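Pasting as-is:
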Amino acid sequence: MAYDDGFHGGVTPPRTRPAAGPALGSVLVALVLICGLIGAVLLARPALDVEHQSVPEVPEAAEGR
């Protein structure tokens, strides 16, 4: 039986820090997603405003029905 078979010990290896490139890339992706969600809400806001919506006018062809 080899020495390292079944020996796990209570020591975990230290975490390595990610390089600057991948860290900045993930921050940039998160920022783009957040800005996209904010932009979608701002663009949809006038359509969701129910207080100032006017009733659409009925076309003349549909008035006689």
